[in-house]
Amino acid sequence: MSAVEFAPDDLDEDDLEALAEMSDDELAELYEDPGPDDPLAGYARPVNRLPPGINPYRGIDDLHPL
After folding, report:
1. Using one digit for the tens of pLDDT, what is the confidence trace for 5-53?
2. 66 assigned to some structural domain
3. Structural domain total, the chain
4. How far is CA 38 from CA 4, 10, 59, 61, in A?
5. Looking at the domain assignment, is residue 28 inside a domain?
């Protein structure tokens, strides 16, 4: 799985509506199979994966979302 940068502002109303209409299986496939067309691909972090390491140069305005 490759790392994909995600910004909440990247989603428009059509994307949100499409996500709301997806079944649980379709959402699971979206998270498991990242691709360039998927706005949320790779965004979900498995519970058992460690968070990113501490970066002393990171500012409050560029922290990763929870």
Report:
1. 666 677 778 877 888 888 888 877 766 655 566 555 555 666 666 666 7
2. no
3. 1
4. 10, 11, 28, 25
5. yes
Please check whether residue 59 lies inside any domain of the structure. no
Q: How would you label 11-33 residue by residue, b for 16+ Cβ within 10 Å and e otherwise? A: eeeeeeeeeeeeeeeeeeebbee
Predicted TM-score of the model (pTM): 0.33
Q: Is residue 39 classed exposed, middle or buried when 0-12, 13-18 and 19+ CB atoms within 10 A define those classes?
A: middle
Please report whether residue 16 resides in a domain: yes
Q: How confident is the model at residue 1 (pLDDT cuts 50, 70, 90)?
A: very low
